[in-house]
From TrEMBL, chain A:
InterPro entries: Asp/Glu-ADT_sf_sub_c (IPR036113), GatC (IPR003837). PANTHER family: GLUTAMYL-TRNA(GLN) AMIDOTRANSFERASE SUBUNIT C, MITOCHONDRIAL. Keywords: ATP-binding, Ligase, Nucleotide-binding, Protein biosynthesis, Transferase. Gene3D superfamilies: Glu-tRNAGln amidotransferase C subunit, N-terminal domain. Its EC number is 6.3.5.-. It is an enzyme of class 6 (ligase). This is Aspartyl/glutamyl-tRNA(Asn/Gln) amidotransferase subunit C. Belongs to the GatC family. It catalyses: L-aspartyl-tRNA(Asn) + L-glutamine + ATP + H2O = L-asparaginyl-tRNA(Asn) + L-glutamate + ADP + phosphate + 2 H(+); L-glutamyl-tRNA(Gln) + L-glutamine + ATP + H2O = L-glutaminyl-tRNA(Gln) + L-glutamate + ADP + phosphate + H(+). Heterotrimer of A, B and C subunits.
From TrEMBL, chain B:
It catalyses: L-glutamyl-tRNA(Gln) + L-glutamine + ATP + H2O = L-glutaminyl-tRNA(Gln) + L-glutamate + ADP + phosphate + H(+). Its EC number is 6.3.5.7. Belongs to the amidase family. GatA subfamily. The active site is at K80, S155, S179. This is Glutamyl-tRNA(Gln) amidotransferase subunit A. Heterotrimer of A, B and C subunits. Pfam families: Amidase (PF01425). PROSITE patterns: AMIDASES. The gene is gatA. The lineage of its organism: Bacteria, Bacillati, Actinomycetota, Actinomycetes, Micromonosporales. Residues 25-471 form the Amidase domain. Keywords: ATP-binding, Ligase, Nucleotide-binding, Protein biosynthesis, Transferase. It comes from Micromonospora arborensis. One of its GO terms (biological process) is translation. GO terms for molecular function: ATP binding; glutaminyl-tRNA synthase (glutamine-hydrolyzing) activity; transferase activity.
From TrEMBL, chain C:
Allows the formation of correctly charged Asn-tRNA(Asn) or Gln-tRNA(Gln) through the transamidation of misacylated Asp-tRNA(Asn) or Glu-tRNA(Gln) in organisms which lack either or both of asparaginyl-tRNA or glutaminyl-tRNA synthetases. The reaction takes place in the presence of glutamine and ATP through an activated phospho-Asp-tRNA(Asn) or phospho-Glu-tRNA(Gln). GO terms for biological process: glutaminyl-tRNAGln biosynthesis via transamidation; translation. Its EC number is 6.3.5.-. GO terms for molecular function: asparaginyl-tRNA synthase (glutamine-hydrolyzing) activity; ATP binding; glutaminyl-tRNA synthase (glutamine-hydrolyzing) activity; transferase activity. NCBIfam families: gatB, PRK05477.1-2, PRK05477.1-3, PRK05477.1-4. Keywords: ATP-binding, Ligase, Nucleotide-binding, Protein biosynthesis, Transferase. This is Aspartyl/glutamyl-tRNA(Asn/Gln) amidotransferase subunit B. The gene is gatB. Residues 266-288 are annotated as: Disordered. Gene3D superfamilies: 1.10.10.410. Heterotrimer of A, B and C subunits. It holds the Pfam family GatB_Yqey. The lineage of its organism: Bacteria, Bacillati, Actinomycetota, Actinomycetes, Micromonosporales. It is an enzyme of class 6 (ligase).
């Protein structure tokens, strides 16, 4: 049985903001299926009581002092922008109303 | 004077310091070499002729003013296009960043400038450092100077090829799963992945934040150590940078070069000398092991059973982090924007931009990572992979209670022909089988040339405990003293 | 939808509300959460940005120690346990005001958990349980162009300014609060008020709702008595203390009308509208995106040293509730009187007025009397009325010095509220000063004695109480600008009578 369906790949592409083509969907579905079957091997390892590792350095409490450092100029900040207006980054109209916090 | 491009970094620095040549002369010689061969090798994405000559002139002026210069002053360096360089194009081998000139320098780039090295330009790489052959560069592949029909390894194939083609004596790479060591192995050069946190990631365009490690590439071990010393050490801009002095890798390389490994215990990872590697690679590896034993090292075999799961764990962790790291490439603040016709919504424009800007391997990994982090799959994939990471670390820790360093072939095979693995992504992943465990653990690893198989270079990997980078340099330098360096056929 | 809303009394008679509050506080650190860019409000667009807060490729975050310290102090003030070890997490979703397209936040390992905050409502103490307090980063600001009134709908394009992106944001989440019945809206308001006062006391934020440094989301649900809790809605865009109360009330009424009509409540985000006082639906939570949280690999875990936490705890300032109790004693107020001071939002104002040299009774008189009346009339918070504690103290000083009488002081205070200047300036400009020129006054007194010989005789014969008639006469001729007490003494003196 396939680990991942073409529909799931289409959903992943939408979540990832990738406007993939139909041909790509076919290709990726097959390839991701092969990869997922291979990486699913991690499930063979008995690790129920093993703590996960998110960082390989055993560091904690790395902080910065609350001291102002120089900013970019607005020209530098906007220098790479595909489009800018009124010293702001211009984007096309926004459909979703998702807001953080 | 003999050909400046054939010299080691150490020799060049001495000539510049002694006034026997100038930094400008050295730089010009390398720029000429690039002009002569890079249309065939394609190691560089961008050659910064003006910037390099200006930097070289500055070094010469400082010397003329009587300043004492650092040990690598006046030495040219090629920088992998994964590091942000102020005002100099930085693309990460991707169309999505075509034309981007960062408004800031990576910490490593800043340190290279401060040390008086001369940045020649930016080297080719697999897009976003995802690949093992440099064939996934959006700007065309790099060719292996040993055989132009073969891959130079990846993702840092550009840096390794630049060294092997004598276009630069030193180069910077970044190693997430083997991207410094594997290209080093297949081009007959030295590539070192420092301890994670031993070199700053600030300004390194992230692929997998918990694994990415920038490091030095060179044609010999001492040069690599000198470069390591210049770029390494604590950086307060990187929270994962280790706030401790780094080990003296240069002294270790010099000690190793004396050819004495008496009292050093080396462990062969038994899981990596089974059927995984090609016979020619294994033959060269076995001969090197004998050479190390002759230098006085005690050789034992060590088992690291969970290393078998390193590759699957890596291909869950790295894509997961990458799916998040690459979200910022959306055509809003920098880089490519596609399809903004005044009609389409931001969401459509973003999706079209990312579709057009990313190559297939990047898209595969973004989707794979998005999948592995999804709420229904997190525990089985990403969560489980992180537990495997713990077990791999435990294997390393246990091994280093028995031995000072671990050794293995760097790669299972020599440089494979171009196009051989592009159709099968998972076959491509296998090229990093032996290098990946070190990244998951966070310790240092170095690939040093150890012989040839059918005329192509083979690398030996030395792995050491975290923050014991000096040990791997000692062993690598000792091996180098025994087997020598390897010169590719003339281009 | 034009359904008639049921009466509030009926709603709370039939349904039990459960509320919950998520409050965001922008910390007043010098610099942003992950970089050294300054945090001050305002500023030209994209002038307070760097590679880190713009999310440029290669940039990395480093946590601001002052922000970590601030959140631990907030947690301690809210009686939370401080985690021994916790991590930041990435919350992944695409939105252009978020430079990295993920927000660095905290997920299942918040730094502060399980606290509470006691608030007073209607003379009762209500304990609000705090579920978590965590640290995250603020977003940039998006300007929608081409649509109506800057709204996202109908806009043709948007413009983004990242000055605010990366400012440290503390999120304080309550546990669900059941059992408050008809008082639910007031409890919500009292909680946010108390929380604001606590945070202001700690000095870690200016907590100004109108500038957005304190933002509140209100969760509301209704259930039948004894039944399971209902489906909740989350109301955003609640930008004042008054709105907190109105939003809960309005959402209770709306939900009741839906339930009364046999409908069901949709779990969704709603937006509060200050002008109409009601809420409209936003994005439905049922189709909420999967945020794919995972530990932030670019930041190492936080493991606050217990000794440091103990030090911070010991150094906490007196919290508002304790402080208020002490003031109540100092001011000699009954519980009821103190409650009216609280309700008027006058504690700090009176305190500051007293600190400027006024007696507690006089300070209370002005703030709860004249000024509260004016605040109510114009529908503003007492603190925003336009008179400062220093001005009130100055005014009372003039009264105490005999320069203003009570009636004139009220007139001067009106002037202060209307922005005419300081009490002394207004007094001078309006020519309101009590006539203290004894020469002029003596002439007026002598005239009054001459004009009223019968009354003068009465006083001379010992009927001192009759002096009031002469005082009234002098007041008339001086148009009230004399101090009654001074005047009385002067009349007696001119008549050779002991007062
Ligand atoms: Zn910044």
């Amino acid at each position: 049985m396939a680990a991942i369906s073409r529909e799931e790949v289409a959903h992943l592409a939408r979540l990832s903001r990738l406007a993939v083509t139909e041909e790509e969907l076919d290709m990726f579905a097959g390839q991701l299926d092969v990869i997922l079957q291979a990486v699913a091997q991690v499930g063979e390892v008995a690790a129920a009581d093993i703590p996960p590792t998110s960082h390989s350095v055993p560091l904690t409490n790395i902080f910065r002092e609350d001291v102002v450092t120089p900013c970019l100029t607005p020209q530098e900040a906007l220098s790479g922008a595909p489009d800018a207006e009124d010293q702001r980054f211009r984007v096309p109209r926004i459909l979703t109303e998702d807001v953080a916090s | 004077m003999s050909d400046l491009t054939r010299m080691t970094a150490t020799e060049i620095a001495a000539l510049v310091a002694g006034g026997e040549t100038s930094a400008v002369e050295v730089t010009q010689a390398h720029l000429d070499r690039i002009t002569a061969v890079d249309d065939r090798v394609h190691a560089f994405l961008h050659v910064d002729t003006e910037g390099a000559l200006a930097a070289a002139r500055a070094v010469d002026e400082r010397r003329a003013a009587g300043e004492v210069l650092g040990p690598l002053a006046g030495v040219p360096v090629a920088v992998k296009d994964v590091l942000a360089t102020r005002g100099v194009p930085t693309t990460v081998g991707s169309k999505i960043l075509e034309g981007w000139r960062p408004p800031y320098d990576a910490t490593i780039v800043q340190r290279l400038r401060d040390a008086g090295t001369v940045m020649l330009g930016k080297t080719n790489m697999d897009e976003f450092a995802m690949g093992s052959s440099t064939e996934y560069s959006a700007y065309g592949p790099t060719h292996n100077p040993w055989d132009l029909s073969r891959i130079p390894g990846g993702s840092g194939g550009g840096s390794a090829a630049a060294l092997a083609a004598y276009e630069a004596p030193l180069a910077i790479g970044s190693d997430t799963g083997g991207s410094i060591r594997q290209p080093g192995a297949v081009t007959g050069t030295v590539g070192a992945k420092p301890t994670y946190g031993g070199t700053s990631r600030y300004g390194l365009v992230a692929f997998s934040s918990s694994l990415d490690t920038p490091g030095p590439c060179a044609r010999n071990v001492l040069d690599a150590a000198l470069l390591h010393q210049v770029i390494g050490g604590h950086d307060p801009r990187d929270s994962t940078s280790i706030p401790q002095p780094m080990p003296d890798v240069v002294a270790a390389a010099k000690l190793g070069a004396t050819g004495d490994l008496t009292g050093v215990r080396l462990g062969i990872v038994s899981e990596f000398v089974g059927e995984g590697a090609e016979p020619g690679v294994m033959a060269a590896f076995r001969e090197s092991v004998d050479a190390l034993a002759k230098l006085g090292a005690e050789i034992v075999e060590v088992s690291c059973p969970t290393f078998a799961y390193a590759l699957p764990a890596y291909y869950l962790i790295a894509p997961s982090e990458c799916s998040s790291n690459l979200a910022r490439f959306d055509g809003v603040r920098f880089g490519l924007r596609v399809g903004d016709d005044g009609n389409r919504s931001l969401e459509e424009v973003m999706s079209l931009t990312r579709e057009a800007g990313f190559g297939p391997e990047v898209k595969r990994r973004i989707m794979l990572g998005t999948y592995a982090l999804s709420s229904g799959y997190y525990d089985a994939y990403y969560g489980q992979a992180q537990k495997v990471r713990t077990l791999i670390t435990r294997d390393f820790t246990a091994a280093f209670e028995q031995v000072d360093a671990l050794i293995s072939p760097t790669t299972p095979s020599v440089a494979f022909p171009m196009g051989a693995r592009t159709a099968d992504p998972y076959q491509m992943y296998l090229a990093d089988l032996f290098t990946i465990p070190t990244n998951l653990y966070g310790g240092p690893g170095i690939s040093v040339p150890c012989g040839l198989s059918e005329g192509l270079p083979v690398g030996l990997q030395v792995m050491a405990p975290t923050m014991a980078d000096d040990r791997m340099y000692r062993v690598a330098a000792a091996l180098e003293s025994a087997v020598g360096t390897f010169t590719p056929p003339a281009l | 939808m034009t359904t008639t809303l049921p009466a509030y009394d009926e709603v709370v008679a039939r349904y039990e509300p459960v509320i919950g509050l998520e409050t965001h506080v922008e910390l007043g650190t010098n610099t942003k959460m992950w970089c050294g860019c300054p945090t001050d409000f305002g500023g030209e667009p994209n002038t307070r940005v760097c590679p880190v807060c713009l999310g440029l490729p290669g940039s990395l975050p480093v946590a601001n120690k002052a922000a970590i310290e601030a959140i631990i102090r907030i947690g301690l003030a809210l009686n939370c346990s401080i985690a021994e070890w916790c991590r930041f997490a990435r919350k992944n979703y695409f939105y252009p005001d978020m430079p990295k397209n993920f927000q660095i936040s905290q997920y299942d390992e918040p730094i502060c958990v399980d606290g509470y905050l006691d608030v007073e409502v209607g003379g009762e103490t209500v304990r609000i349980e705090i579920e978590r307090v965590h640290l995250e980063e603020d977003t940039g600001k998006t300007l929608h162009v081409g649509g109506a009134t800057g709204r996202i709908h109908g806009a043709t394009e948007s413009l983004v300014d990242y000055n605010r992106a990366g400012i440290p944001l503390v999120e304080i989440v309550t546990k669900p609060i059941p059992g408050t019945g008809a008082l639910a809206p007031e409890v919500a308001r009292a909680y946010v008020t108390e929380l604001r006062d606590v945070i202001r006391t700690l000095g870690v934020s200016d907590v100004r709702m109108e500038e957005g440094s304190l933002r509140c989301d209100v969760n509301t649900s209704l259930n039948l008595p004894g039944a399971e809790w209902g489906t909740r809605t989350e109301t955003k865009n609640v930008n004042s203390l008054r709105s907190v109360e109105r939003a809960v009330r309005s959402e209770m009424l709306r939900q009741a009308s839906v339930l009364d009509a046999g409908g069901r409540i949709t779990q969704e985000t709603r937006h509060f509208h200050e002008d109409t006082g009601d809420t409209t639906p936003g994005r439905s939570k049922e189709t909420a995106t999967d945020y794919r949280y995972f530990p932030e690999p670019d930041l190492v875990p936080i493991a606050p040293d217990p000794a440091w936490v103990a030090e911070l705890k010991a150094a906490l300032p007196e919290l508002p509730r304790v402080h208020r109790r002490r003031l109540q004693q100092q001011w000699g107020l009954s519980d009821l009187d103190m409650q009216s001071v609280l309700n008027a939002g006058a504690v700090e104002l009176i305190e500051a007025t007293v600190a400027a040299g006024t007696t507690p009774a006089a300070a209370r008189k002005w703030w709860l009397g004249e000024l509260s009346r004016r605040a109510n009339e114009s529908g503003v918070e007492l603190a925003e009325i336009g008179a400062t504690p220093a001005q009130v103290a100055e005014l009372q000083g003039l009264v105490d010095a005999g320069k203003l009488n009570d009636k004139m002081a009220r007139t001067v205070l009106e002037g202060v509220v209307d922005g005419e200047g300081s009490p002394t300036e207004i007094m001078t400009n309006r020519g309101l000063e009590v006539v203290s020129d004894t020469g002029a006054l003596t002439v007026a007194v002598d005239e009054a004695i001459a004009a009223n010989p019968a009354i003068a005789d009465k006083i001379r014969s010992g009927k001192v109480a009759a002096v009031g008639a002469l005082v009234g006469a002098v007041m008339k001729t001086t148009r009230g600008q004399a101090d009654a007490k001074t005047l009385r003494e002067l009349i007696l003196e001119r008549l050779g009578v002991q007062g």
